[in-house]
Amino acid sequence: MQSILIDAGPLIALFNKRDQYHIQILKFLEKQNCNLWTTWPVITEASHMLDFSIKAQLNLLEWIKRGGLNLVSLTSESIEQIITFTKKYSDVPMDLADASLMVAAESLSVDKIISIDSDFYIYKDIRNKYLQNIFFENLT
């Protein structure tokens, strides 16, 4: 089964029925037969943006607990990689969640991501590869 990274935007949309992408992400994820991966910085960002509802935050965490997402462990070595990415893309800018996903892509050898951001077409990982944003491609 294919592994795909997921960013905070689609997670926020998934658990916020008022989000403009809510229906699209539901339908999109129903069609996917994959293992979804993310990082704690992404979960933190999504949870923060869902702070309008404790229920939405808990639904996200319960979904993770049930196996909806796999979490990539970041190490102290990951911090150096995150710093490198953040400096390299400081003109974009790249935030902690995005940098952590680039580290995760390298550690898992993943080249696909689900995001509502267009920034991932700019970022190249250490393998000199871009992440293919399969959700964004389906929105355009």
Question: Would you write up a description of this structure?
Answer:
The chain is built from seven helices and five strands, in the order E-H-H-E-H-H-E-H-H-E-E-H. 51% of the residues lie in helices and 12% in strands. The chain has one domain: Rossmann fold (3-Layer(aba) Sandwich), CATH 3.40.50.1010. It has a five-stranded parallel β-sheet. The model has no long low-confidence stretch (mean pLDDT 90). With 140 residues, the protein is α/β, with parallel strands linked by helices. InterPro entries: PIN-like_dom_sf (IPR029060).
Describe, in short, the structure shown.
This protein has 140 residues and is α/β, with parallel strands linked by helices. The protein has 7 helices and 5 strands, in the order E-H-H-E-H-H-E-H-H-E-E-H.
Measured as a percent range, the helix fraction is 40-55%
Characterize the main sheet. 5 strands, parallel
Helix-and-strand structural type: alpha/beta
CATH topology call: Rossmann fold
For this structure, what is the CATH class? Alpha Beta
Count of individual domains? 1
* Strand adjacency order, main sheet: 3-2-1-4-5
Gap between N and C termini = 26 Å
Q: Oligomeric state of the chains?
A: single chain
Q: What is the mean pLDDT?
A: 90
CATH architecture classification name:
3-Layer(aba) Sandwich
Low-pLDDT residue intervals, each spanning 5 or more residues: none
Report the portion of residues in β strands: 5-15%
